[in-house]
Amino acid sequence: MDQSVIFERSAPVRRRPRFKLVAGVAATLVCACALLGWLVLRARADPAATAHVAAVPPLVTVVVPKLGEVKSSVSLTGLIHARNDVPIGNEGDAARVTEVLVEAGAHVRKGQVLARLNAVGARSLVNSAEASLDEARAGSALAQAEWLRAKQDRDLFSKEENEQRRAAAISARAKVEAAEAQVADARSRLAHTVISAPAAGIVLTRTAEVGQIAVPGTTVLFHLARDGEIEMRGQVAEVDMARLAVGQKASVRLDGVARSFAGTVWQVGAVIDPATRQGSVRISLPSADPDLRPGAFARVEVSVGSTLGATLPQTAVLNDDRGTYVLVVGKDNKVERRAVRIAGARSEGLLVGAGLTGTERVVAIAGAFLRPGELVSAVLAKAAT
Q1: Nearest to residue 212, comparing CAs of 95, 37, 348?
Q2: Nearest to 227 by CA among 83, 98, 79, 22
Q3: Which one is predicted more confidently, 276 or 70?
Q4: Same domain membership, residue 170 and residue 136
């Protein structure tokens, strides 16, 4: 066998040593343990530094409410309605709609034509009634002439014949009156084929369509807001009903409309719903504003006078089983609990009616995380107005 082959088989296999990797890991662990021990020894050697960090008081934001006359209001929600919604339909015989002259949103005057119905049948009735009237008038004129002649020549006619001619004249006159009534009824039916506005106002809805059969008493062709008057109808809690009165000013806001609308309370409900414990309120609004559409959702603030109090952010007022309270930062920067009475809610916060003098520093945010007697560092925020 070749000696080179034997040498290659008998040569030892070289492997990469691992003791260097183990040594590196061990060195790293030793360094980490040494650093940790140094930190522990330093903390034990300098406890004043640790106590100083723990003694830093929490930083809180406070507000100083100003006590004074605060305008009070009652909030409610509701829908916009037409103050007088007038349904308009067919008052004559059932007929087909042949023409529609107005659309929803149109301003109309009293007597303006809104739609027309098929008038062929009504016009024929008028012609027939007028012909009957002419016939009755002719018969009445003849009977009246004979009666006059009989009265002038009493000697030529017997008493019985005179009575017969008088009765004939009276009957003929009655027929004329009946024919006149029939003509008036036929003309009224013809007039009802023209649908007109009973008053000036705004057309709210139009359901009339050409070709539709308008049935009297059941088919409503138009809804009209008489004189264009618009109002807001809302529900208010029973406890606030006594604060409302006719003539109070209101601010009305609609979804999607940036500006507000000035209104006036013109009716306060006389009863309280026993199921919901709420009463109704109606507020008149400008009639010529196109943004006030019946059916829109509205939010209202009714001004009901002023009261003595202060306004705080809602986050500053807390509640627990002992009642409503706020946290006040005293002169020594320690937190104190102060019981308060809430007089109402406003868009900018809660109205405090009692419990504050107007000079306190009230914790505005995160008061629930503080304890009475705790030392804090106060930062003054913008004062409540």
Answers
A1: 95
A2: 83
A3: 276
A4: yes
**Which structural domain, as residue segments, surrounds residue 92?**
85-109+199-227
pLDDT-based confidence at residue 10 (cuts at 50, 70, 90): very low
DSSP string, 240-300: HHTT--TT-EEEEEETT--S-EEEEEEEE-SS--TTT-EEEEEEEE-SS-TT--TT-EEEE
In a domain, 345, yes or no: yes
Structural domains of the chain, count? 4
Integer-rounded Cα Rg, in Å, for the chain is 47
Indicate if 131 and 182 belong to the same structural domain. Answer: yes
Q: What is the pTM of this model?
A: 0.55
Mean pLDDT of 270-286: 90
Same domain, 268 and 152: no
Q: What is the pLDDT of residues 194-238, one digit of tens each?
A: 999 999 988 988 999 999 899 888 889 999 988 888 899 999 988
CB 22: neighbour CB atoms within 10 A?
10
Angle between helices 159-191 and 120-152 (to 10 degrees): 160
361 within 8 A of 376, measured Cβ to Cβ: no
What token pair was written down for 338?
């102060």
Does 144 lie in the same domain as 181? yes
pLDDT (mean) for 5-27? 47
3-state DSSP percent of the chain in helix, strand and coil, to 5: 30, 35, 35
